[in-house]
């Protein structure tokens, strides 16, 4: 069975938490596609060469979740040749047997427009920055500034900009507790599977 759940949205909107819960509930494989761009960003050197030669070790680095890695990721993610190098792997993952959940920025629009379920998860910038600050610490105002900067870059780029697919279900988690957000998404997936 091929069944793809595409979860897109801006930084720290809750895509990962929702994606992991869906994957676990239905036994689907899960790919956090942001990790690919973070790994390219932190490798340094030529980003196109890095994207073409990403290894399992690159993806297992323990410094991929930092704010700096997020910023580096969004810079290299604007380079069309970087995106092209990562495309096939993501497409194959999306259509693997047994079901797949992918979260990112362009899953429903570019990687898998045929996804059976498409979600666009969002929340206000201060709410998202607060969540990221709880995760990483540091200066909350600086976290907010970086979240806004990254959103603007991701939405403003020419290649695969961050935007909802026309048929995506919008989920605003600003005032929605995470367990309720997950419950709604599980219901949606269940109804599409039926
Ligand atoms: O976890 P968070 O939402 O903060 O970010 P992420 O999903 O790890 O993505 C890091 C950066 O990679 C984003 O700001 C995007 O610039 C880029 N990205 C992308 O362009 N396309 C994707 N499918 C996933 C991430």
Specify the structural class. alpha/beta
Task: Provide the β-strand percentage band.
Answer: 5-15%
Largest sheet: 5 strands, parallel
Compute the number of structural domains: 1
Stretches where pLDDT is under 50 for at least 5 consecutive residues are none
CATH class annotation: Alpha Beta
N→C terminal distance? 13 Å
Number of helices: 10
Mean pLDDT level: 97
Assembly classification = single chain
Query: Strands of the biggest beta sheet: in what spatial order?
Result: 2-3-1-4-5
Classify the helix fraction into a percent range.
Answer: 55-70%
Second rung of CATH, namely the architecture: 3-Layer(aba) Sandwich
Q: What coarse outline follows from CA principal-axis ratios? A: globular
CATH homologous superfamily designation: P-loop containing nucleotide triphosphate hydrolases
Q: Which radius of gyration do the C-alpha atoms yield? A: 16 Å
Describe the model.
The protein is an alpha/beta fold. It has one domain: Rossmann fold. It has 10 helices and 5 strands, in the order βαβαααααβαβααβα. A 5-stranded parallel sheet has the order 2-3-1-4-5, with helices on both faces. Helix 1 crosses helix 10 and helix 8 (125-136) packs across helix 9. The longest helix has 17 residues, at 140-156. The chain is globular. The two termini are 13 Å apart. The mean pLDDT is 97. The site of cytidine-5'-diphosphate has 15 residues, from helix 2, helix 5 and helix 9.
């Amino acid at each position: 069975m091929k069944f793809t759940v595409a979860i897109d949205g801006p930084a720290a909107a809750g895509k990962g938490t929702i994606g992991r819960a869906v994957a676990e509930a239905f036994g689907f494989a899960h790919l956090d596609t942001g990790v690919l761009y973070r790994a390219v960003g932190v490798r340094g050197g030529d980003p196109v060469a890095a994207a073409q030669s990403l290894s399992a070790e690159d993806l297992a680095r323990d410094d991929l979740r930092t704010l700096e890695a997020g910023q580096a990721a969004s810079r290299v993610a604007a380079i069309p040749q970087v995106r092209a190098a990562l495309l096939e792997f993501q497409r194959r993952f999306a259509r693997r047997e047994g079901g797949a959940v992918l979260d990112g920025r362009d899953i429903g629009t570019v990687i898998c427009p045929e996804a059976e379920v498409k979600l666009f998860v969002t929340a206000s910038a201060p709410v998202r920055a607060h969540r990221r600050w709880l995760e990483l610490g540091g200066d909350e105002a600086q976290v907010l500034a970086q979240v806004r900067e990254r959103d603007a870059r991701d939405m403003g780029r020419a290649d695969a900009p961050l935007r909802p697919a026309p048929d995506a279900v919008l989920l605003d988690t600003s005032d929605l507790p995470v367990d309720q957000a997950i419950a709604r998404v599980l219901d949606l997936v269940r109804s599409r599977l039926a």
